[in-house]
Amino acid sequence: MADFKNPNNTKNGLNQVTKRKSLTLKELASELKLSPTTVSLVLNSAPTANSIPKETQNRIFDTARRLNYRPNYIARSLRAQRTHTIGVLIPELSGGYASMVLSGVEEKLLEKDFYYFIGSHRHQPAFIERYTRFFMERCVEGILSIDTPEKHQTFLPIVSISGHDDSKGATNIVLNHKSAAIMAVEHLVNFGHTKIAIIKGQEFSSDTEVRCLSIIEAAAKFEIQIKNNLVSQLIGNDPSPQTGYLAAKKLLESGEKFTALVSFNDMSAIGAIRALKEAGLEVPEDVSIIGFDDIYEAKFHNPSLTTIRQPLKEMGSLGVQHLLDKIHNNIDENISRTVTVEPELIVRQSTAKAKS
Amino acid sequence: MADFKNPNNTKNGLNQVTKRKSLTLKELASELKLSPTTVSLVLNSAPTANSIPKETQNRIFDTARRLNYRPNYIARSLRAQRTHTIGVLIPELSGGYASMVLSGVEEKLLEKDFYYFIGSHRHQPAFIERYTRFFMERCVEGILSIDTPEKHQTFLPIVSISGHDDSKGATNIVLNHKSAAIMAVEHLVNFGHTKIAIIKGQEFSSDTEVRCLSIIEAAAKFEIQIKNNLVSQLIGNDPSPQTGYLAAKKLLESGEKFTALVSFNDMSAIGAIRALKEAGLEVPEDVSIIGFDDIYEAKFHNPSLTTIRQPLKEMGSLGVQHLLDKIHNNIDENISRTVTVEPELIVRQSTAKAKS
DNA sequence: TCGTTTCAGTAAATCGTTTTAGTAATGTTA
DNA sequence: TAACATTACTAAAACGATTTACTGAAACGA
Q1: What is the 3-state secondary structure (H, E, C) of chain A?
Q2: How far is the CA of B163 from the C1' of C17 (A)?
Q3: Chain D bases near protein Cβ (<7 Å)
């Protein structure tokens, strides 16, 4: 008859079974013929454990290692009221932007022995709401909000990246948009461009307005006026280049001539290039294009993309750094602060002299 | 003097404070002048709660809603010994592959009211180990292992996607590699190609060998032999097209002529195209290229990529489906099973008739 | 020799839930 | 009217750790 208690019966049954359900502190203590208290104190190197002789301590460490004891995180969190976990709100997992920021986030967290939940909300307020609640239920110690317009009045520490959260106490990690815009426009002006078009981001993207306005302002500095019908917008939350393709088509349909295009990001720039090609225009011969972000594909696209690189990874790790500072030092929550990071112009093949 | 207990002192102090640290069941119960037991039974619609009059029940529900009571997940998990969480092992967050699979994973989990931890291990065994331990500590109920070679002998339910886990009881979600290879080769043969090169995946990628062998076999069916020096390999774990660029360079350096190239994935195909261009070869005029995956950029690259689409999102959601089945129905763990998904050939601009 | 440290630990409370095993009070049935 | 069922609840144990407040024994100092 089958042994129901030990379905994975083997020669080495006990070993298997102990692995099956993990060892508790109580079991470990009874194995050692000590109290759970003692074992816990020693394993956590509590000051109280000073009086326990080295010999006993080693016995405890050895046995714990031998039996592969791992304290149960759930129990520990409940008691300590700490979870070592933060929640990360982000629009999409897909695309270059998210993964680059997240890689910075992950690296820094790993280093600090923290962990994270991801909530990707696809720009739907209901999801933002749902994930925020979810994070609170799971007792995260803080929230990192990436490119997410949030109105959640939570009392958790919050840092937002590209988010422009004006509520008191929020920390914002933002790009120096002014400087980015000047770089882009200056580069085009140096190539002799004056008829410049813009593809601005989706209305729900938090960088959309600043980025667009900064470019218009920068252009004004060079005495260039950007015409209204040369401003197109990404529509819908398809993370592929398709949105850029459609936005560029609209520009072409307007009939207004342009020799340069500043696109909201690299993904949409790639789509725009396709639209121009289909209209018989060559990049960069007929139209120069500048993207934004410098995702992996930018360098390898044909033509390779001139782009404004955001230090995305750095923004991720800076965000985490600031969030953890808030969590640990319990920094005065009423001080809002803004951390600005600098963009970099990466010149490649998609921009060239304006056709005269 | 400052009030240390209530730093966010406001007119509405109490309200703020109650929000500050979330309401416990005990507090809610005492507010209601009932025992925690009663409140818990009612809120969870336990069968025992039948004897509680509707009136009281409503009073409980209303008050809970009014005070915004949320049961503490940590405490609940500890008691129930359930976390409603799985661990997901994946090489990288970046790149098209991961995000497409994950979007399937996420969608299915959300629907089933489960959640997940991501461990991205960058192909380093130490990280796989670390994350697996981490998952166990945090009491995940199962592990979904994506494109990850794993040897972890855990007794948790496991499903692996593109992983070929042969250990007993594992469920594998795999692509029909044979069929994929035949599609690719047949497409090239129809265009008259006979000198076919291969860029195989990194040695640590679990699909590398099968995919390469399947192509060689498929070619053999069409009486084409793939020469040894026309097989190159991706090296290193840079998730950008750079690896494909380098692998293609090696092919070119070998001096062996080829008119078609099957690349391990779209990312590397994009890199390969760059290498060919630099060598003065046009795609598809001189060399036809087939990618793999059909990531977002494939359609918009210049030239757009002919590729073998893996139903990545479907694979993610299938993986979750099977994992949850295992978790819930406690399916006999000793039965291994393989779920095969079908590829699809997407013909675009990167393949054409062979130069005669 | 008495009082005080130090040593080597342990008992019990605690975190916030869920759940088992009750208990009074009332109503119903034989 | 005694036995039983139902109603409307509650006390206390449990989950697996951490931590506070002890205890009994030995060692030490005066």
Answers
A1: CCCCCCCCCCCCHHHHHHHHCCCCHHHHHHHHCCCHHHHHHHHCCCHHHHHCCHHHHHHHHHHHHHCCCCCCHHHHHHHHCCCCEEEEEECCCCHHHHHHHHHHHHHHHHHCCCEEEEEECCCCHHHHHHHHHHHHHCCCCCEEEECCCCCCCCCCCEEEECCCCCCCCCEEEEECHHHHHHHHHHHHHHCCCCCEEEEECCCCCCCHHHHHHHHHHHHHHCCCCCCHHHEEECCCCCCCCHHHHHHHHHHHHHCCCCCEEEECCHHHHHHHHHHHHHCCCCCCCCCEEEEEECCHHHHCCCCCCEEEECCHHHHHHHHHHHHHHHHHHCCCCCCCEEEEECCEEECCCCCCCCCC
A2: 39
A3: 6-12, 14-21
Check CB contact under 8 Å for B296 and A72. no
What does the block give as tokens for B203?
């040695």
Tokens (6 digits) for A154: 């939570």
Give me B18's structure tokens.
């109650």
Report the distance separating Cα A71 and Cα A80, nearest Å: 13
Q: Do A95 and B99 touch (CB under 8 A)?
A: yes
Residue A37 CB coordination number (10 Å): 12
- Contact, A44 CB vs strand C, < 7 Å: no
Q: Tell me, what's the pLDDT at A18?
A: 31
Interface test with B, best of A3, A20, A74 (most B CBs within 10 A): A74
Prediction pTM value = 0.88
Instruction: Please answer yes or no on whether B99 and A115 come within 8 Å at the CB atom.
Output: no
Low-confidence spans in chain A with pLDDT less than 70: 1-20, 150-153, 330-334
Q: Which residues of A touch B267 (CB under 8 A)?
A: 296
Of A22, A73, A300, the CB nearest to B274: A300
Pairing of strands A171-175, B143-146: unpaired
Confidence at residue B258, expressed as pLDDT on a 0 to 100 scale: 98
Among the partner-chain residues A77, A95, A301, the one whose CB lies closest to the CB of B74 is A77
B164-169: long-range contacts, CB 8 A cutoff, minimum separation 24:
B164/B206, B164/B210, B166/B336, B167/B336, B168/B333, B168/B334, B168/B336, B169/B333, B169/B334, B169/B335, B169/B336
The distance (Å) linking the CA of A213 with the C1' of D13 is 64
Å separating the CA of residue B36 from the C1' of nucleotide C30: 39
Per DSSP, the residues of B187-252 read: HHHHTT---EEEEE--TTSTTHHHHHHHHHHHHHHTT----GGGEEE--S---STHHHHHHHHHHH
Per-residue pLDDT for B17 more than 50? no
Element of type H or E holding B291:
strand B288-293
Distance CA(A73)–CA(A79), nearest Å, equals 10
Residue A77 CB lies within 7 Å of the nucleic strand C: no
Q: ∠ CA(B8), CA(B65), CA(B80), 5° rounding?
A: 95
pLDDT digits (tens, 9 = 90+) for A16-30: 333 457 899 999 999
